[in-house]
Amino acid sequence: QVQLVESGGGSVQAGGSLRLSCVSSGTLFGINVMAWYRQAPGKQRELVATITRGGTSTTYADSVKGRFTISSDNSKDTVYLQMTNLKFEDTAVYYCKNENNYWGRGTQVTVSS
């Protein structure tokens, strides 16, 4: 049974930083792409960033480019999302997902202006 568990969310002021973590467990064979998504109240879930196994390739939503960095530590089966210069509009529940469509339960990020 694959499980993804996010952590690291919290409340910060605009301009602050947070680092989210997503730990995977279970059968991970063949998983080559991990992603972070977010869902703000009343909005659709949106893709934030992706990373290939080994970190050889990353992609970002335009809204977070230059502020967020996705990375991974395969030895720990963990994917990170370093978020800097946070804005009010980054407030959302952040989820990680693997390419087999397993999702975590999410971690809340709240940015106050």
* Class by SSE composition: mainly beta
Would you count the extended β strands for me?
10
Indicate the overall shape.
globular
**Count of discrete alpha- or pi-helical segments spanning 4 or more residues:** 0
Low-confidence stretches: none
Separation of termini? 40 Å
How much of the polypeptide forms β-strand, as a percent range? over 45%
Mind summarizing the main beta sheet? 6 strands, mixed
Portion in helices:
under 10%
Q: Would you give an account of this structure?
A:
The protein is an all-beta fold and 113 residues long. 0% of the residues lie in helices and 52% in strands. The chain has no helices and 10 strands. The strands form 2 sheets. Strands 2-10-9-4-5-6 form a 6-stranded mixed sheet, with no helix packed on it. The protein is globular. The N and C termini lie far apart (40 Å). The mean pLDDT is 94.
